[in-house]
Amino acid sequence: MPREHKSRREVLDAINSIPSMKDLLSMHDGHFDHELDLEVTVYGRNYSGKKVGPYVRLLDFDPGETVISEGEWGGNSFYVALDENLEVLVKAADGTLTKVAEYRPGSEFGQMSVLAGVPRSATVKAKPGVRALVLEVQRPALRLLRKLTAFAESLDVAYRRHGRDGVVEELKEVIGLSDEHAKDLRGLCQFRVFTKNHVLVREAAPMDRLQIINQGWLRRSRKSGPDAEEEDFLGSGFCFGLGGVIKNLSWPYTVTVLGRTEVLELPITKLRQNIPLREALVSRLSKYEPPEFKSRVSKRSEVAARQLTSERRLIDTGLVDATNLLVMDMDLCVRCGNCSMACHQVHGQSRLVRRGIQVTRLESPRPSAIQSVLAPAVCMHCQAPECLTGCPTGAIGRFEAGQIDIEPRTCIGCGDCASQCPYNAISLIARKTAASAVQNGFKQRLSNFLRLSLDALPPAVDATEDLVAVKCNLCSDRVGINPPGAKTQAYSCEENCPTGALARINPRHYFSEIEAIDGPLVLGSRQAAGRNIHRSDPGKRVSHLLGVMLTVILTALAIAGLREYGLGGRLVSFLNLRWITGLAGLAGIAVVMTYPVRRQVYKRRAGPLRYWLLSHTYAGVIAGVMILLHGGSNIGGPLTAALMISFDLVILTGLLGILLYVVVPRLLTKIEASPLLIDDLVRRQDELKKDLASVLASASPALRKVVEGRVVPRFLSFGFLIRQFVKREPLGLMISRATGEFKSALSQLDEPDRAKLERAVESAATLRRVDALVYLHRSLKLWLPPHVVTTSVMLALMLVHIVQVTYYAAR
């Protein structure tokens, strides 16, 4: 471990020796020009009793000691060499470290991890035999030091140089450039960064530069008529302007930047002068040119239009820039809230509320393959996170696994990160809530076990002091879920989704329309995320296969045995098929009952809940078949009859639950504009009822007659409720048609009453749509109370039956 020099005078002397930072100590008329910034950076400062800073440390490293390591995520600090005792090493193909450079005094290193959110690109160590003095600078100091002209320029130059060199080195590997060509390319090109809405190239302008897109998203457009325009979207990994290298051309389209975009740019005039480099790039980059514009936009089919809309939505919302995105397939989501409950149990306060960004897309290129996806307001661990820019203590940063996380010990609860996050993924809660464990009494545990009640939303934060920021950290600090040495990363919310609706994914791979527009020239490291279980879930396939095989094999064996021996014919000792089928049924019931037990396991790995639900279902089917065969044609006495009836009811209610889980979510996605929680729907119901009542309260006699006599009976009828499930028309179209039914009545009213009638029609029609959604939500739990009750009765009767059978067998 390095030794820290605590003397503030030594720290000030170190800063004064660094050309880019010494202006922090500049003085005028006996006063420091940057007095407050200097105080926070070097000494630290108390704000309302909370310590902020210091942001720099003077560290003394032992000979051969590592300062930073290649491949590590280190986005929270960078360093400045204060002597000549540091060497730079990179990892060779065989894993050995090779020295490639030495740092001079004043050299800054490690900035790219802070600025670009990428892993360290090299290892830096103290030279053997000598100690090295290094100034560590924490991320929050950047916003203060950027006020210094020399530092801002040095940072900008270093960022562009590192960015250029990094892209050139990767190009060298990907397209096979020689060292000489790479050197020439480095001397000719510029690394440029553009912000949203910058026009990269303009249609009909001369093609004067070659551009390689390193990171970013682009909108390509061209005129197709006097007032018409065609467009498509492209990602990174494309090379623009290659045709202009060979001959003089004009741009056939306009390209506009849709977000922060990194581009390697070469002037064509200079490139033409270097014939060997020109020929090497033209031959090697030709396959990385963007596709012909007509191949994406000429065919205006329904599929193409939907895919284009989906691409625009995904790019505009920023979902494509996530490194680890949480998505919910609403056709699979049964609105049970178990994901939020898991998050609450694991962290003490749920960081997952099922509200967020909704995207309707085509899973495959056919109009009927519609998928409704909800990305809840949960941290996406962005490539360029905005939440990191304002934190005054550096509590929020990119941690060792690449995830964005918050260190509660240094968080002062200022809320800067929460206000900067565009996705509302960071919350402020009372610190004591974050520190306390979830405590549940027997009644609460029983309620959770039975899960008959809807999940309550997280309580509003009314505390104003001693707050701490919390957010999703991918369960990285939970040893039970992600123990040391675990081969895969697990997430409690995903592990505890019973249907596999929820998944942590890489958006570039999950959304096929985005994968299709991403370029083939992939540069820069991109974090990997969880496996896309919506596209491929081998465990689910295996579970189904084993379940079907066991059901068929055991049923076939039991039926064959009954035909050969009957129920009473002895096979081995006292065992006959009545005993065997009874024990097999009992074993199936035992497997069935493991599911509710597993559902209470949140804080450690126990296998994804979706596989347990499948085993629960198949075990129930096997148990049902075995007990049906066990009973035979003789129903027996009252106790046995009651047991068989209760078991039949368990099976029937379970089958009803499966049917509802399959049908209702898909019906919901077809009639809801965007996914809503039951709490939101109930509140909307109340709002619409009050709105309708207010219209009636202020209505004239003529208007009241129309509303009470025609509007209410028409739209609040049972028939109009059924229409919501059958017609499945968009809400806007339904309201437009509903208003059209009252054209004659509208023409007979004056202007104020006409507006009120339109409002009443809209409120009544919308209310029925909301009613339909509420009924669907509640129907998802309709089967559960009778299933739990009949299961309890069945288990009690079965226990009595087992005791009775054992007693008579012993006699």
- The secondary-structure class comes to alpha+beta
Unreliable parts: 295-299, 434-439
Separation of the first and last Cα atoms: 76 Å
The biggest beta sheet reads: 5 strands, antiparallel
Annotation keywords:
globular, alpha+beta, single chain, 811 residues
Describe this structure in words.
Mean pLDDT is 88; it is low at 295-299 and 434-439. 46% of the residues lie in helices and 17% in strands. The chain starts with a strand and ends with a helix. The protein has a 5-stranded antiparallel sheet. Strands 7-12-9-10 form a 4-stranded antiparallel sheet, with no helix packed on it. It has a 4-stranded antiparallel sheet with strand order 14-21-16-19. It is of the alpha+beta class and 811 residues long.
Blueprint (SSEs and pairs):
Blueprint lengths: L2 E3 L2 H9 L10 E2 L2 E2 L2 H9 L1 E3 L2 E3 L3 E6 L4 E3 L8 E5 L4 E6 L5 E7 L4 E2 L1 H6 L6 E4 L5 E7 L3 H4 L3 H27 L3 H10 L1 E5 L4 E3 L7 E7 L2 E6 L5 E6 L4 E2 L2 H4 L7 E4 L3 E7 H6 L1 H11 L8 H4 L4 H16 L7 E5 L8 H10 L8 E7 L7 E7 L19 E3 L5 E3 L9 H5 L6 E4 H5 L6 H9 L16 E4 L21 H4 L6 E4 L1 H4 L1 H6 L20 H28 L4 E3 L2 E2 H16 L1 H5 L10 H23 L6 H34 L6 H20 L3 H15 L2 H10 L3 H10 L2 H5 L3 H29 L4 H27 L1
Helix pairs in contact: 5-6, 19-22, 20-22, 22-23, 23-29, 23-30, 24-29, 25-29, 26-29, 27-29
